[in-house]
Amino acid sequence: xxxxxxxxxxxxxxxxxxxxxxxxxxxxxxxxxxxxxxxxxxxxxxxxxxxxxxxxxxxxxxxxxxxxxxxxxxxxxxxxxxxxxxxxxxxxxxxxxxxxxxxxxxxxxxxxxxxxxxxxxxxxxxxxxxxxxxxxxxxxxxxxxxxxxxxxxxxxxxxxxxxxxxxxxxxxxxxxxxxxxxxxxxxxxxxxxxxxxxxxxxxxxxxxxxxxxxxxxxxxxxxxxxxxxxxxxxxxxxxxxxxxxxxxxxxxxxxxxxxxxxxxxxxxxxxxxxxxxxxxxxxxxxxxxxxxxx
Length: 294
Ligand code: SF4
Ligand code: SF4
Ligand SMILES: [Zn+2]
Fold this sequence. Notes:
Elements: E1 11-15, E2 18-29, E3 33-39, H1 43-55, E4 59-70, H2 76-84, E5 114-121, E6 127-130, E7 135-136, E8 149-153, E9 158-168, E10 179-192, H3 201-205, E11 211-213, E12 218-220, H4 231-235, E13 243-258, H5 264-293
Antiparallel strand pairs: 1-2, 2-3, 3-13, 4-9, 5-7, 5-9, 6-8, 10-13, 11-12
Helix pairs in contact: 1-5
Bound molecules: iron/sulfur cluster (2 copies) and zinc ion.
């Protein structure tokens, strides 16, 4: 039976049915960014997780607008497009994906739709309309930032509209991607042999300032910053080079930057749940196919 689980700290015992030690260490984390060191997994697993993060983890975005009045020079379609791209704080526990909501209505209900309104008039003079001018019926579902410019109004121009936000997935439209970036790279391994003459050429050429020259040795200052570009190896005058840079087998640095819709750890937890569900479905399919054959 397959198992696929993730823990923020510590180790898990199973991975795709193979008993394996997986180690996950949080290297950095704040409100929107997370950087992990993951050991004991392979590229297909990490790539599946990355693809699920960008295309399957739902987030909330404006999906439809009704324009009541627009006397600006901006077309309704352009305003709709801009509003759709405003990241909204998302509550995955209180809302359903429209296709999974019991209401089965294309207009939606309180469990699958949030209404936001905008009513701005430039009374005094030129006025920029910002994401913060959207008023939400749910104070928990609001723009991540109030300072995203949407359009400009000249004196006496007006914009009045109603916007409907829904949960959706990045595979259907990029506005529903909960992350602005999700990448991984091999964990670097740097070795300096005793043939090193400490000339310092590798230190000078490194674009990421990974290496540092000490009195009689070269030391690694910031291993995680290394991009494995091999410039230091090429710059070494020794033959063969006295410095070797490679990626550690089955060890990766996983980076995730949330748009602010969901906390980065929630994005990863949701992605691992979805991967687990997909694997169970695949397992079920294979069993059905086998029993059909026999
Ligand atoms: S491989 Fe590139 S980034 Fe890494 S230490 Fe060498 S020069 Fe610096
Ligand atoms: S370039 Fe080569 S010899 Fe010079 S310090 Fe670096 S590793 Fe040592
Ligand atoms: Zn509904």
